Amino acid sequence: MSLCYPLDVDPVAAEDAVVYAAPMSHGAGLYNFIHAIADRGNPGWPAIAASVGRAQACVEVRVVDGAGRETAAGEAGEIVVRGPVVMQGYWDNPQATAAALVDGWLHTGDIGFLDGQGYLSLTDRSKDVIISGGSNIYPRETQLRQWLLDPDGSLGSA
Fold first, then answer.
1. What does the DSSP 8-state code read for residue 14?
2. Which sequence ranges are marked TM in the entry (predicted)?
3. Which domain holds residue 100?
4. Is 132 within a domain?
5. Is residue 127 part of a domain?
6. Which residues face 36 on adjacent strands?
7. Which residues contact 26 (CB under 8 A, 6 or more apart)?
8. Helix/strand/coil percentages in the chain, nearest 5
9. Distance between CA atoms of 108 and 99, rounded to whole angstroms?
């Protein structure tokens, strides 16, 4: 089970079959109304396992841009959700409720994308974004690039 950001997915070897013989299910904190079973017979299973899954029937999930427009499959934006299992407001805090719930959609503050099959992947938090020259820069992506370019830190910090 992944309790926050996506799982690390390593290549599976034949000897892993003993450990991974049964289908696995995982979700992520706020997203426990989403469910994923990564069928290892599916050639795209690593991406499915790295996602938080697809929405169950009782909830709607969208990814929207800064203007509230739905993004295309694979395009990152803020994750918004609605349904009877989604919180209806903050206790005794109408200002926070109004900020979080817009037209019935809970704005989660998480950045992610839906793939073409409806699997949701988390990539960052919206409050961690730096806007520079009209581009969104996410510290998590910058840190990942730094690590990929200099995994042992021999080039110094970014």
1. G
2. none
3. 14-149
4. yes
5. yes
6. 26
7. 1, 2, 7, 36, 49, 52, 53
8. 20, 30, 50
9. 11
Mean pLDDT over residues 113-120, rounded? 92
Measure CA of the first residue to CA of the last residue in the chain; give whole Å: 32
Q: Kindly write down the DSSP assignment for every residue of 105-141, as one continuous string.
A: EEEEEEEEEE-TT--EEEEEEGGG-EEETTEEE-HHH
In total, how many domains does the chain have? 1
Residue 158 belongs to some domain of the structure: no
Phi, psi of 64 (to 5 degrees): -125, 155
pLDDT of residue 98: 96
Q: What pairing do the DSSP bridges indicate for beta strands 60-64 and 34-37?
A: unpaired
> Mean pLDDT for the chain?
75
Long-range CB contacts (within 8 A, 24+) of 94-101: none
Distance CA 130, CA 79 (A): 18
144 or 127, which is more confident?
127
CATH number, domain of 31, equals: 2.30.38.10
Contact present, 26 and 52 (Cβ < 8 Å):
yes
